[in-house]
Every structure is written in structure tokens, then in C-alpha cells.
Amino acid sequence: MSYNILLFDLDDTLLDFGANETQSLTRLFGHHGYTFSDELFAVYNAVNKQLWANYENGTIGLDVVLNTRFSETMLKLGKVVDGPEWENMYRELLGTGDQLHIEGALEVIQSLSASHRLFVVTNGITHTQIKRLKQSGLHDFFEAIFDSQSIGHSKPSVAFFDYVMSQIKDFNKSEALIIGDSLHTDIRGGNLSGIDTCWINRNGQTSPADIQSTYTITTLVELFAICPPNRTK
Which Pfam family, just one, is annotated for this protein (predicted)? Predict the structure, then answer.
């Protein structure tokens, strides 16, 4: 199969969100007088993951995720805080922190941009994701950036990918490939929308029977075998 349109997830696919998240949370909690420990992260992570899962399932809005994750976290610790105020500071810290590439990301994106049409598809906040991409040096390699906040729908919903397809000139499903690290948002999204997928499985996870990727790789550089970078665009 020859793919011309490549739809890349961002966090933990091209950018090391984990490192940026830890750095930003450490600064955020420190600013408010708390030491960001492993125990505190475990509480926050559980709250945050559940809220994002609810959002991706369509049961809550994005504003609920953003405005309550810190207040709910601290409430579990017996503290009442201003959730939106914490969130605003966190988003600024995320956007100004170290935007580290996943290994091979810059090489792969630079090479593929000469022969393919590249797009970002992300469940994230418009301003923050664009800022992070610019600071990482990857922004200018992409034809467009599609984020859930701007679209009003999130991956893996069909509505998200229907919008993406409607906005890409000369879009052809047979020429498109979704590349991402998340089975439940990227790969399921492709399954639901009829778009081929490439799962970046760095941790040896097992895919459930109801989610099937067209390709599975363990590093970004392996994408060259699926999408050779030296053909004519």
C-alpha cells in the first residue's frame, strides 16, 4: 500500500509528553507549596486518566477535564483549590517546558515531509499543542494541525476523523495512514473511520481482539519501511 497522507498523533508519538508532564507538574505543585511526590502523582494520574477516558467516550466535555482535574486531585487529599487557576498555570508550564522529541522523531518527520503530506491529529488544547510543536522545531513540517478542542470532538470518534478528512484537500482513505501510540484513541479511531493505522508499540503491549492495527512498529524509524521517504511527493 502506498500512503501519501500521514496523520500523526503528537503526545508520546512525536513528543515526550511524559517528561514534559513531570517537569510541569513539579513546577505547578511546587508553586502552590506542595512537593510533587510519586504518591501525589499516583493520585493525580488516576483522576486525570479517568477524566480523559470519560471525555474520549463522549460523557463529559473537555472543559470539565481541564477545570476539575486539579481540584478533584487535591480534594482527595483534603484540600480545596481553584481548579481553573491551577489548570491555566499548568497549560502555560506545558507550553514553555522542554519539548523533547521521541527518539527518531525529528529525523523521520524531516525525511517524510519531502515526499508525503503530514498532519497532526491530537486530543489536546489548540494553543498549547501549537506552541509545543513550534518550540520542538517540528511545526513547519506539517500541512495542518487538527486538535480536539478546535474540532469539538475527540479521538477516537468518527466525528473527529470525518472533520479531518473533510478539511484535507484531495483526501483519499486508501492513501492515508494514522500513526500513533494509543490503541484506544489512534488505532480504534482508524478502525472506526476506515483508515489504515500504524501502532507504535514501544512497551510490548498486547492488542485486544476488537482493536487491530494495520501495522505495528516499535520505533519511529521503522516507519520508513512502510512509507519510504525517497519517492516523489
Answer: HAD_2
Beta bridge partner(s), residue 216: 199
Rounded alpha-carbon distances, angstroms, from residue 110 to 2, 15, 224, 230: 19, 14, 12, 12
pLDDT of residue 233: 54
Q: CA geometry: angle at 69 spanning 132 and 84, to 5°?
A: 75
Please give the CATH superfamily to which domain 5-16+100-226 belongs: HAD superfamily/HAD-like (3.40.50.1000)
| Domain-wise residue ranges, the chain | 5-16+100-226, 17-96
Give dist(CA 84, CA 197) in Å, integer.
36
pTM value surpassing 0.85: yes
Report the CATH fold assignment for 17-96.
DNA polymerase; domain 1 (1.10.150)
For 32-89, the pLDDT digits (tens) are: 999 999 999 999 999 999 999 999 888 999 999 999 999 999 999 999 999 999 999 9
Are the folds of 5-16+100-226 and 17-96 the same? Answer: no
* Spatial separation of the C-alpha atoms in residues 182 and 13, rounded to whole Å: 9
Q: SS3 of 219, please?
A: coil
Are 144 and 168 in contact by the 8 Å Cβ rule? The answer is yes
Q: Which residue is associated with the grid cell 513528543?
A: 15
Supply the residues annotated as catalytic. Answer: 9
